[in-house]
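Record type: monomer structure entry
Structure origin: computed from sequence
Chain ID: A
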Amino acid sequence: MKNVSEILRWVGLCGAALAATAYAQKEQWLEYHVTREGRGYSYLELTTNAPPNVSLPKLNAKPYFARWVSPLDQSGGRWICSGPYDRVFIDSKGDGKLADKTPIGTSQLDQYSAYFEPAKIVFKGEDGPITYHLLLRFMAYEGSDTRVLASSGGFYAGDVDFSGKKRHIELIDGNVNGTFNDQGSTSGECDRLSVKDDKVGERYLGKLLELDGQFFRVEVARDGAFIKLQKAEDVVLGKMKVPVSISEFVALGENGHFVRKPLKGEFTLPAGKYRILEWTIDRKDSKGAAWQLMGYGFNESADFEVAAGKPSALEVGEPIRVGLQAREATNRLDFNLSFIGRFDESIQITKGGQRPAGPRMALASLDGTYRSTNTFEFG
């Protein structure tokens, strides 16, 4: 009987452990919301060539066509036809037809742009239909080609449990492909997650979410309908070192999106692969005015790895360099001035939170007969 009691006790303990794990990993369901304010953006490639084997509506003007790509669609995406500025047709059902679709009208028109109402798109899911909304903006500026900007017109939101504490979250389709669980090393690859009262704001999605000094393992449904969260107690950290001038350092990688304020140039990150997302240097001049340098727009040259027990160093920040480009136009020269960092990233300079007056440039001929001084404008 003693052995039987021991067996039953262990079965009970194992059951309790499994129940706790299941509870930590339970699906927490979210609600879908439609919005006219895009939450993620992606340009679509436009063409005037009609897609093959797609029935087209009757139009009075030469149309534009674009294909919106989504992994939720069995054929890989949906065709869009603009007629060209005041209405748009979308293969909303995925049946390869545009001729029988009701045109979507504009919500706003101006001299250069046409903003369209949210377009409802339906996919076939394993458990039934999946609804998504796409926002489109057609732009035609003087002297430039027509472009179409797609943005996500729907997001998921709800109150979820973070180890006993309820927090409101929103899931955002950041790369505008219809899914909500995309991860990657660049911001353009990732979807986003925001948590109420999180000082960081929206974070790019990864395996981990850092909130209030704690790590949580994150799993998001592909269609965004639910999220799973589990407090991560076994996260392995590695040490990083940057120049002491760095006030803030932001990294994005397989583990997620992390913001650090280095102490004497040192901080830790979960072990894994990352890319620098941003860095910031804050200083005050002799008059007490606050100046800030910020680096952003990094490429693969800014990839780095964090390993446990092996401190890594990154040389980021100053010095920065100035890039000057000249382009010859009709009877004039156009100059472009930019500030560039160590990894060829773009640099933003602000004073008191505002951009300072643009730099001045003096031009003069070798014989001294011509001299001109101009001020660069931010654009």
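Annotation 1: Residues 26-31+155-231 form one domain.
Annotation 2: The chain has three domains: 26-31+155-231, 35-154, 236-379.
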